[in-house]
Amino acid sequence: MISRDFFRERLTEEELRQLLGDTPPAEAFAWRSPRARAMGLDPASPPPPEELLRLMLQVPHLIRRPVIRLGERTFFGFDRRALEEALARMER
Question: How far apart are CA 32 and CA 52, in angstroms?
Answer without folding.
Answer: 14
